[in-house]
């Protein structure tokens, strides 16, 4: 959608905050018979006023030409654009502090489409460890079928070890992309984004092509971390998680410069990985409460972490809110992150048997994968989301059989702690 009165983001010299802009940015009631909220536009195609307009709109959508001064783009077909998608993308770009945003049918659709946009047969990709299990599988299996090799690094705080991985990748082919997940799922490991930018710049000098730094920002985004401010070129979200926030939809997004997002959108149109109107509408609804939901969940998570940190049956806590002053993650955390978030992991004393005992005895918390919903969810990554990752790699990155991931919701905090207390008695 083009700039207009309904794209106002300032009052005089005052820049409006995202929480305010989520209530109307990108939409005018005049578009829909005065409807306060955007309707769901359930249509596959759009009618042109005349043949020339159809030609013009398709040329713009296909990227064959740019907008002329004073010209507005239009809608052509819902695989390329539709009103709900355009409004949602406008609003997500505000949260991500980006020029443009593109939304997809899932988080994995966003990641896969981005890989297709920037990787070519024979290329290599540098990535952090651990990654979400689906991403790990995509890089190792599916992308490998196209002759693309993945090179992973485990310590995202040590630029020297990251350079070793970058050099190995560059020796095997053109480095087409740097993909990192920070904080990592499920260990909350951190990656220094300034170091990633530096390595991308160095690769540009040596190979003549600058690989974009792409960040999976799902665990803290879009409220508590802004990767584009710290060296990333593109920031990814699984909208299924905190943005959707109610465990009732699947979606993904990528935000960044207009030029880079345009490349990804071109592939989205070809692959058909766009998000449907109803899910876009539901996400617009959820964006209106994103700030208060994430704030409440973050506060609850801090209380849960404090309880677990002092429990005799907990062996280790992977929570960013209690880093000691000598922890190497602390400097990067304070530079990149605005809060610890509400998803973290902990190890019970023992192994799978003890972890399962805890999970099986919870009565309020739900045993389910995913995260970022209003309800508290717990899972066993080694047996569930990361079960496809080789055991050797799981052990290398600290993803043990004793590890449990928790995504703290917005329930009453005393009830949540009581549930953990009674379940831990069974361990």
Automatic annotation (TrEMBL):
EC number: 4.4.1.11
Keywords linked to the UniProt accession: Lyase, Pyridoxal phosphate
One Pfam family cited in the UniProt record for this chain: Cys_Met_Meta_PP
Cited InterPro entries: Cys/Met-Metab_PyrdxlP-dep_enz, Cys_met_metab_PP, PyrdxlP-dep_Trfase, PyrdxlP-dep_Trfase_major, PyrdxlP-dep_Trfase_small
Cofactor(s) the protein needs: pyridoxal 5'-phosphate
GO molecular function: methionine gamma-lyase activity; pyridoxal phosphate binding
Modified residues (N6-(pyridoxal phosphate)lysine): 241
A biological process from GO: methionine biosynthetic process
Broad EC category: lyase
Any one annotated GO CC term: cytoplasm
Protein family membership: Belongs to the trans-sulfuration enzymes family.
Protein name as catalogued: Methionine gamma-lyase
Source species taxonomy: Bacteria, Pseudomonadati, Pseudomonadota, Alphaproteobacteria, Rhodospirillales
